[in-house]
C-alpha cells in the first residue's frame, strides 16, 4: 500500500515503484539489456514521434492509480506522479527541453462530461516543475471516437483517423504528454498532425508504458 501524504509519497514507496529500465528509445517498450536501443517494430516502421520517455511500466501500483485519476478524479496523485516523470526526463542523456508541452486533448463533449482532462493536469504540474509552458491551443480533438481501451491494435488506428488537428506553428520542438501508452496510436496521430503543422521534433512523455 502506498504511503501518500500531502500529495507526495514516502521514500520507500518511491523506491519500490515499477521504474522503467532498458527500453526502446522510440516507443519505450521494454527490451533486452543486450539489445540495441530500438525495438524490432520501430526498426520496421518508426512512429511519427521521435522518442518516448516513460517513468514507469504499467504495473502495480501504477496500474491501479492511473484509472482512479482518469475515472474517479483522484487528483491528489497527480503532483508526485508528475514529479516522477520530471525526474525521469531530466535524467536523459543530452536532454534539451522542448518549447512546449502538449496534453492529449479530449473532445469537447468528453471534456464537458468529465469536467477536466487528466493529461492537462499532468502537463500543468510538469510545467511548474520544469518551467516549460503547457500549450492547449495547438492540438484539438475534432472527432468523437470510441474508447481506445475496448479496441485491439488495428481497430485503435482506424478509430483515430482524422480525430485530431493541429494549428500551424512556429514551434519546432514539443513534447506530447499522456498518462498511459499502449499501442501508441493516439500519440502517433497527434505527432503526425504536429509535423504537418511545422514541428520538426516531437517527443512523447508518459507516466507509464504497458507491455504489448
Describe this structure in words.
Helix content is 35%, strand content 18%. It is an alpha/beta fold and 212 residues long. The protein has a single domain (4-209), classed as 3-Layer(aba) Sandwich (Rossmann fold), CATH 3.40.50. The strands form three sheets. Strands 3-8-7-4 form a four-stranded parallel β-sheet. A two-stranded antiparallel ribbon has the order 1-2. α8 links the parallel β7 and β8. The chain starts with a strand and ends with a strand. 35% of the residues are buried. The model has no long low-confidence stretch (mean pLDDT 91).
What key attributes describe this structure?
8 strands, Rossmann fold, 35% helix, 212 residues, four-stranded parallel sheet, alpha/beta
Give a concise summary.
The chain has helices at 11-16, 40-44, 62-72, 78-90, 108-114, 118-130, 153-159, 185-196, and strands spanning 4-5, 8-9, 51-57, 100-103, 139-141, 164-166, 173-181, 201-209. It is of the alpha/beta class and 212 residues long.
The tally of helices reads 8
CATH architectural grouping: 3-Layer(aba) Sandwich
Beta-strand share of residues = 15-25%
Question: Tell me, what's the shape?
Answer: globular
Mean pLDDT: 91
For the sheet with most strands, the description reads: 4 strands, parallel
CATH topology: Rossmann fold
Radius of gyration: 16 Å
First and last CA, distance: 26 Å
How would the blueprint of this fold be written?
Layout: E1 4-5, E2 8-9, H1 11-16, H2 40-44, E3 51-57, H3 62-72, H4 78-90, E4 100-103, H5 108-114, H6 118-130, E5 139-141, H7 153-159, E6 164-166, E7 173-181, H8 185-196, E8 201-209
Parallel strand pairs: 3-8, 4-7, 7-8
Antiparallel strand pairs: 1-2, 5-6
Helix pairs in contact: 4-6
Amino acid at each position: 500500500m502506498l504511503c501518500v501524504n500531502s500529495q507526495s509519497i514516502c521514500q520507500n514507496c518511491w523506491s519500490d515503484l515499477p521504474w522503467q529500465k532498458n527500453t526502446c528509445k522510440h516507443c519505450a517498450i521494454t527490451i533486452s539489456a543486450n539489445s540495441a536501443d530500438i525495438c524490432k517494430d520501430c526498426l520496421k516502421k518508426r512512429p511519427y514521434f521521435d522518442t518516448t520517455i516513460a517513468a514507469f511500466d504499467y504495473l502495480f501500483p501504477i496500474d491501479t492509480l492511473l484509472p482512479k485519476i482518469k475515472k474517479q478524479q483522484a487528483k491528489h496523485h497527480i503532483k508526485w506522479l508528475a514529479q516522477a516523470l520530471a525526474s525521469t526526463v531530466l535524467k536523459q542523456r543530452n536532454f534539451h527541453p522542448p518549447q512546449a508541452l502538449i496534453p492529449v486533448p479530449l473532445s469537447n463533449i468528453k471534456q464537458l462530461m468529465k469536467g477536466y482532462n487528466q493529461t492537462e493536469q499532468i502537463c500543468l504540474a510538469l510545467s511548474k516543475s520544469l518551467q516549460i509552458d503547457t500549450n492547449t491551443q495547438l492540438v484539438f480533438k475534432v472527432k468523437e471516437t470510441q474508447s481506445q481501451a475496448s479496441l485491439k491494435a488495428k481497430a485503435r488506428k482506424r478509430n483515430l483517423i482524422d480525430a485530431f488537428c493541429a494549428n500551424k506553428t512556429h514551434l519546432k520542438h514539443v513534447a506530447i504528454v499522456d498518462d498511459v501508452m499502449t499501442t501508441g496510436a493516439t500519440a502517433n496521430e497527434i505527432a503526425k498532425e504536429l509535423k504537418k503543422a511545422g514541428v520538426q521534433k516531437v517527443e512523447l512523455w508518459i507516466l507509464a508504458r504497458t507491455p504489448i
